[in-house]
Amino acid sequence: MVFETIVALATAPLKSALHIIRVSGDDAFTVVSKCFSKDIRDIKERTLLVGKMMDNDKVIDEVVLAIYKGPNSFTGEDLVEITCHGSVLIANEIIELLLSKGARLATNGEYSSRAFLHEKIDLIQAEAINDVINASTKEAKELSMLSLKGETSKLIVPIRKRIADVLSLIEVNIDYPEYEDIEVANKGHVVALVDELVPQIDKLVNEGEKGLIIKEGINVALVGKPNVGKSSLLNALLGENKAIVTDIAGTTRDIVEGEINLNGVVLHLLDTAGIREVEDKVESIGVNKSKETINKADLVLVLLDASNELDKEDEEILSLVKDIPHIVVYNKSDKTSSRDKEGIYISALNNDITPLKDAVYERLGLKEESFKTPSLNNVRQLGLLKNTKESLLKAKSDALNDLPIDLVSVSLHDAYNQVLEILGEYNQRDISKEIFSRFCVGK
């Protein structure tokens, strides 16, 4: 396969001290040599050079070249990183010059894609590159770094091997039935395999769902009647006066959003309009939006007035969230000493919200080791892992129902292919095309 020479700016297109331009491909050294003051075509090992980028006799900039001879490079190809002064104008001039010498602009994620295609990284590691770049907390970054280093891939490889062992035994039995010294593949092998792997997969799914929370955070909706203190609570959580607070019912008519970092987990807060029966058309739209937000939330904080008894509207709101993860929060605890109702008591106005923060974090189910445990923590990986489990259980069911072993193996093949797909080893071109399109150019 021929890999065209590609070029892209690897740093942000802003004025800075330095810019880095990446060039990678089969003819990378030749292309760069056409416009660099020194010939680098015969370089055989990693090298640093100082020189000038030249457009014929015109000097564009004095630069430093980091030269990587494939396959000992990130992409697995000949790769050059050109460090120039941090002018966007200079960087663009150099890129245009390289394009005129035979390179083409790289597409989103093409450098990482080539690293994947040259087997420098697997698909889990490739996705981790993007996760590290997009991490919004230190904890999310550290978790993604574990995947980038290959620790997460190590969780899947043993599962792939065990399924492959049993499939190989079945295939040998089918293809070479005349050999009497070959171990006979039977339903016992399949049942034992499934009973061994399903608990492992359940553990990986559980850890992955926690990892997904650490990496992406959760949506938390604040709901309740008008004037119960939702906006005050949002402001208290954010530590700023983002939402307008008045004693006029119906002040909040649209969703007000904010984010906080709660012990390493991002909470995407959604302050909703007070839910009640209204005739005002504008407020009615806000109430409907509130109900829609409830259904999209990962966790709902139901605010009630601790200083008053529950009424019909409160009961209706509680009914709306009964099948959704929620925490009942009694606000305005400073106005009453009563604590006879089950729930969390706070005073948003007085910034007394620590019990609520503790309750939310406890609901997440995270422990200290959750932040240090490698995990399959994106929707694609978790979906394939769950499908793997279903295929294994189907194989076990077929075996227990005494189906012929070759038919039982169909579900085992499905499970095996799904494990390969997690790593990017099955139908890799179709899978990777979608994933790498989400990367930024230059990665």
Quick description:
The chain is α/β, with parallel strands linked by helices and 443 residues long. It has helices at 28-33, 88-100, 110-117, 123-134, 138-148, 153-175, 187-216, 230-238, 281-296, 312-320, 354-364, 379-400, 405-423, 428-436, and strands spanning 6-9, 18-24, 47-55, 58-68, 79-85, 104-105, 218-224, 256-262, 265-271, 299-305, 326-331, 344-345.
- Residue windows where pLDDT falls under 50 for at least 5 positions: 243-254
Instruction: Name the helix and strand elements from N-terminus to C-terminus, one letter apiece.
Output: EEHEEEHEHHHHHEHEEHEHEEHHHH
CATH topology of the domain at 217-369: Rossmann fold
Tally the beta strands: 12
CATH architecture of the domain at 217-369: 3-Layer(aba) Sandwich
Global structural class: alpha/beta
Name some characteristics of this structure.
443 residues; alpha/beta; Gyrase A, domain 2; Rossmann fold; 6-stranded mixed β-sheet; 14 helices; 12 strands; 45% helix
Description:
By secondary structure, the protein is an alpha/beta fold. Among the domains are: 6-106, 2-Layer Sandwich (Gyrase A, domain 2); 217-369, Rossmann fold (3-Layer(aba) Sandwich), CATH 3.40.50.300. 45% of the residues lie in helices and 17% in strands. The protein has 14 helices and 12 strands. Strands 3-4-5-2-1-6 form a 6-stranded mixed sheet. It has a 6-stranded mixed sheet with strand order 8-9-7-10-11-12, sandwiched between helices. Helix 4 packs antiparallel against helix 5. The longest helix is centred in the middle third of the chain and has 30 residues, at 187-216. Residues 243-254 have low confidence and may be disordered.
